[in-house]
Design a protein that fits this description.
The complex is a heterodimer of chains A (101) and B (313). Chain A is an all-beta fold. In chain A, 0% of the residues lie in helices and 40% in strands. Chain B has eleven helices and twelve strands. In chain B, the strands form three sheets. In chain B, strands 1, 2, 3, 4, 5, 9, 11 and 12 form an eight-stranded mixed beta sheet that branches. Chain B has a two-stranded antiparallel ribbon with strand order 6-10. In chain B, strands 7-8 form a two-stranded antiparallel ribbon. Classes of the chains: A mainly beta (101), B alpha+beta (313).
Chain lengths: 101, 313
């Protein structure tokens, strides 16, 4: 049986409306609906989504403005593969466990 | 719950000043080089070119597809081009128009430039018209391999400065909307300060770097957007269900100043000399540059390398 990789993250300093890189490949997005962890690599042309921005609940890649739903990783463009999403569980106020699978 | 789709239709907008197209158009190209982005409302209509351009485009649609497609595009607008032509036909259309418009490029640019107020320096014109047809991403996605050489024309180009390739550092873009341009299928502008010091490979920026938060633009058919070629800009992936159809050309305030490490070179012509007996000398200032010499040497090398009988040796 393979062991799941997890990470404990203190996200108290991540303000709403911001994107916070937590590893080389994962970032945490703080939307009005909560915190979500997604892959940093944009599936379109590999730009770093940690350099993107949030607008109207969408995570936007700054390179070509592609939007993604931070909860599901889906883009409204059906031809764009979804971002990988990672379970993020609050274990104490402001402290989360990131499940890297 | 998925974020509201309405938020995508009302994305962040770049600061754009709108001016009337009635001559003299109140636009100073020196301000554009300083970062101002200006929309000349209805510029193509004011100059009387819009209907001619649309007719030329419809003729090309008929030649590349069918009379039925022409009638359908005429009725529905170029925004619905992808409903009536497939990607192969649109590629053919783009190439056909690029060739067909070459004959009109100086006249087109001169009409626009002559409508502007007096400029602080002489204006040089590029003499090329580029046809940019961005269909919805879901339509073109499966053809990416076929369209690999169409970045910026039929597929999105990432954040860049035009002087990275063949343009002068003082080039100004004239971006002419044939159809509607809206947030979600347009052009993105980044804060100008991010244009300096970017890492790049050839004509493309390294996508791992921070470029700031982009803003989009809204244009109506016949509008012309004027912006500095070295204002960091990119194509927005088309997430709408409309095709974005624009023609672009470039002018230069003063003789073009090329970047020493640009990937190419194009000549610019002194507008004052075109149409005079001195027209042969109109592009002299841009030809007497290091970039022009480098381009000529590169072309000569390629010609020698591919000369029949020598390539195999």
């Amino acid at each position: 049986m393979t062991e799941r990789r997890t990470m404990r993250l203190d996200l108290r300093d991540v303000p709403p409306g911001s994107i916070h890189p937590v590893t080389g490949s994962v970032c945490v997005v703080h939307t009005a609906d909560g915190l979500f962890a997604v892959g940093r690599r944009c599936p379109h042309q590999a730009a770093d989504l940690a350099n993107g921005y949030l607008h109207g609940g969408w995570l936007r890649c700054a390179w070509h403005n592609l939007p993604f739903d931070p909860r599901t990783g889906q883009s409204p463009c059906r031809s764009i593969p979804a971002l990988r999403t990672y379970p993020l569980t609050e274990v104490s106020p402001g402290v989360y466990e990131l499940d890297l699978g | 719950m998925t974020p509201p789709l309405d938020a995508l239709r009302h994305g962040l907008l770049a600061p754009v000043r709108t001016v009337s197209a009635t001559p003299p158009v109140q636009l100073n190209l020196a301000d554009v080089l300083d970062g101002e982005v200006v929309r000349i409302a209805g510029a193509l209509r004011q100059t009387g070119m819009f209907d001619d351009l649309k007719r030329l485009i419809l003729d090309a649609v008929e030649a590349c597809a069918s009379p039925h497609a022409r009638a359908a595009v005429a009725a529905d607008g170029v925004e619905r081009l992808h409903d009536h032509l497939d990607v192969h036909q649109v590629l053919l259309l783009r190439k056909r128009l690029a060739t067909g418009l070459a004959d009109h490029s100086f006249a087109l640019t001169a009409l626009l430039v002559n409508a502007l107020r007096t400029q602080p320096r002489p204006v040089y014109v590029c003499g090329r018209v580029y046809v940019r047809i961005m269909m919805p991403e879901d339509v073109v996605a499966q053809y990416r391999a076929m369209l690999v050489r169409e970045a910026g024309f039929m597929t999105p180009h990432g954040p860049h400065l035009d002087s990275w390739f063949s343009q002068g550092r003082n080039a100004v873009n004239l971006w002419m909307a044939i159809g509607r341009v809206s947030p979600g299928n347009g052009l993105l502008f980044y804060p100008k300060r991010y244009g300096e010091g970017l890492r790049r490979v050839g004509e493309a920026g390294d996508p791992a770097q921070y470029v700031g938060r982009p803003g989009g633009v809204c244009l109506e058919p016949a509008d012309t957007l004027v912006f500095h070629g070295d204002h960091l800009h990119a194509t927005e992936v088309n997430i709408t269900d409309e095709t974005r159809f624009v023609l672009t050309t470039r002018i230069s305030l003063g003789p073009p100043r090329y970047r020493h490490r640009g990937t190419g070179w194009v000549p610019y012509y002194d507008l004052r000399l075109l149409g005079t007996p001195l027209r042969r000398f109109a592009s002299l200032r841009s030809r007497l540059t290091i970039s022009a010499a480098r381009q000529a040497i590169g072309a000569a090398r390629r010609a020698i390398r591919f000369r029949p009988g020598t390539a195999a040796r």
